Amino acid sequence: MTHKTKGIVLKYIFYGDTSLIVTMYTELFGIQKYIVKGVRKNTKTGNNRISFFQPGAILDMEVYKNDFKQLQFIREYKWGYRYENLYFDVIKNAIATYMVELFLNAVNETEDNEELFYLLENYLINTDRSGNKYSANVPLFFSLELAKLIGFQINKTFTSEAHILDLYAGEFTDVIPSHSYYIEGNTAEITAYINNNPQDAFTGNLLINRKIRQELLNSYQIYFTLHIENFTRLKSLPILQTVI
């Protein structure tokens, strides 16, 4: 049986001489793996087709779905959205690579979750369309929005008293935790702003310097590590931190 669905490419590996196994997050079925045959053939057509499966690619597809198989097949595919800048702009590409890798490491749902799909789709499309001066803080907003949707959003309110963010408990507090997984003061206050104002992700309303941004990215990496079993440090993070 075939179904029409959107999908976002998260990664691919080579399979055989000419094919790929592609991991995607789909609108209808969550995480799925597809065998895509013939896209690595040494022909002009084959070389063009592999571009459809770069990480971050958004596709409209008709797919086969067999609940008893781990690997599925794609019957037809075309661009769901064609990027104008994202694959060619160093900053935007680093941001997109980070978001896709974070999503891949944090999400393992084989059931539909349209909110998760649309979160990643909207952030990728808006990153492509936005000006670079508004892009630097996008990974911070995306990280906290993703955390909310997968079940460990930051709770309680930042105040002059509750100025400490306990990353292990995921909440603001006025007591320094007994462990070392916390941030306080300015970085905690900025985190509260990001957490409460997701609509500002692409506006440029949040003005912070590079040092603070890098500290926050490192803290959010720790936050995911504390709340997701076997979460590993992202390879894309050092690259991202060199360009934003």
Automatic annotation (TrEMBL):
SUPFAM superfamilies: ArfGap/RecO-like zinc finger, Nucleic acid-binding proteins
Highest taxon, organism lineage: Bacteria
GO-annotated biological processes: DNA recombination; double-strand break repair
Stored Pfam families: RecO_C (PF02565), RecO_N (PF11967)
Transmembrane segments: none
Keywords attached to this entry: DNA damage, DNA recombination, DNA repair
DNA replication/recombination mediator RecO N-terminal domain mapped to chain residues: 1-78
Keyword DNA damage: yes
Keyword hit for DNA repair: yes
GO CC annotation, single: bacterial nucleoid
Main function: Involved in DNA repair and RecF pathway recombination.
Family assignment from sequence similarity: Belongs to the RecO family.
Protein name: DNA repair protein RecO
Lineage: Bacteria, Pseudomonadati, Bacteroidota, Chitinophagia, Chitinophagales
